Amino acid sequence: MPSATFALNTLPANSGSPFYDFPQVLQTPSGLALIEIQGTLNTGQSSADGTPSEIGRLTFDGETAWLWIGDYQRMEGTIVDLSPPFGVLRRVTRQESEKQEENGSPDGTAVEIVEVIRKKILFTSRPEPVVNQKLR
Amino acid sequence: MSQGDGIPLYVDSTVASRYRLIQLPPDILELLDSPEEAAHLQLKSATPDSPAFLCAYSRTFQLRQISQSNTLLLLSSGSSPETTDTVPDEILPDPVHATKLPAGYLECIPSTPQIDLSFVPYYHGADLTEAAAAGGSDADLTLSRLDVIARVPVSELEFQSAWIAAMGVEIDGCAYRIAQDLVLRILPILVAAMQADGMDFGALWLNDVFEAVRDDEDEPRAVIEAILRRFCTSPSEPYCLDRAQLTRWIGIKMLSEHAVREVKLEDFMDKWEFSLPPALDMTCELSMLTGQYVQPTTKTIKFLPSARLPVDPARRFERLFAAKSSWAQEDILPFVTDIESDKAKINTLFMKFAKKKVIKGKTYIGKRGV
């Protein structure tokens, strides 16, 4: 019958470095954070060749976050509490679970909570036009 | 502030995220913090298509996928293994990479699952089981206790109590439930042996009990232990025999033979009293069997266990009134309390599916439209 062990990740945070430019409240040991956008994100054709596409630049001002898209638009978002918090689940692959034998269930499947995220950046509004400061 | 000093955000939409989100309500966070519970955490489901459960040591949660249409991005900082692509190096702030998460998240709902052990074969006694094994009838049914646990998506503790209640036993690596007929045969021998050896029913040691019955009974120690634990109040030694529960169990077993046809109350009580080991010093009272029987007339009785009635109130009342068209309120209550515990709501059920009548100060619940 399908079963998998389930555990909180106790390994040292090595999967990512902290976001040095992020506000302290968003920092997590493993360097994971969450963004929610009310709407669909259309990254267009450019991502078809496999390279990640830049959708914008993030800036912060206290609890407010701005996502600047292209030269003429930006979206306003806020840092909000996640209540209840979210766990980021990851399936541990077979080789990994063999390394840590005690974690493996009989069929070798293990799921771990990589990180507990308590805040997210929430974008609820439409992108608003801005005057490009370079053109001023 | 302008975009120039912002952190570049890259989204790789071609890579499916390896991550899923799960909501962590306070109960789950508590579980994760408690070493005893966390050590047992497991995701289980009975079959590949049935719901998944998160099982800890003492509690079980059902997992449910909640869909939402908002876009969820999981950000990881530049050196993450999630994306290995090169990043333009002239930019001062560390770029941030994001992957789209599957829309929605998993929700954990506390659940008290019904534990179904009906797939575990019955153990009918050492002689009969050997004969069956020789005949090859049950030869392919060799589930161990661990196999049974894996098939039942509940926590360790909840499984334990269900296993004890079902008198589960593992003999030579095979899991069984002890057949009721075998229990009925062994119980008087067990009680008589305890009494003969002058044991205190309130403080029993498995070793002593097993030694006492060994001369009269050749069932393995595990069988004696399973029966003893089923009828005891304490989970570990010394066991304290619950005489009332034992009496009730025998009563239900005797009554279960009369599920189709009613029997004279007097005959049933005689039979019950006769099967009860005299050493128990208990008197049989009909009130012990509340919720298990119906009295079609004042002088007859029939087996009607509430646990086997439909959960849907409309169908349950239909079955109850098929067994007896008019019930005294106190008689019908045990058949309703297991689907609804709130007193006011029970009254609503009576109003909706039945008819209340007061005759000489006594309340009767009858069929609607009669």
UniProtKB/TrEMBL annotation, chain A:
Protein name as it appears in the record: Ctf8-domain-containing protein
Subcellular location(s) of the protein: Nucleus
Gene Ontology biological process terms from the UniProt entry: DNA replication; mitotic sister chromatid cohesion
Native source species: Lipomyces tetrasporus
PANTHER family the record matches: CHROMOSOME TRANSMISSION FIDELITY FACTOR 8, CTF8, CHROMOSOME TRANSMISSION FIDELITY FACTOR 8 HOMOLOG (S. CEREVISIAE)
Record-stated family: Belongs to the CTF8 family.
Entry's Gene Ontology molecular function annotations: DNA binding
First and last residue of the signal peptide: none
Key word Nucleus present: yes
Cellular component per GO, a single term: Ctf18 RFC-like complex
Principal localisation: nucleus
Superkingdom of the organism of origin: Eukaryota
Keyword terms, alphabetized: Cell cycle, DNA replication, DNA-binding, Nucleus
UniProtKB/TrEMBL annotation, chain B:
GO biological process, one term: DNA replication
An annotated GO cellular component: chromatin
Protein name, UniProt field: Sister chromatid cohesion protein Dcc1
Keyword terms of this UniProt record: DNA replication
Assigned protein family: Belongs to the DCC1 family.
PANTHER family linked to this entry: SISTER CHROMATID COHESION PROTEIN DCC1, SISTER CHROMATID COHESION PROTEIN DCC1-RELATED
Organism annotation: Lipomyces tetrasporus
InterPro entries, per the entry: Dcc1
Pfam family, one: Dcc1
Origin organism lineage: Eukaryota, Fungi, Dikarya, Ascomycota, Saccharomycotina
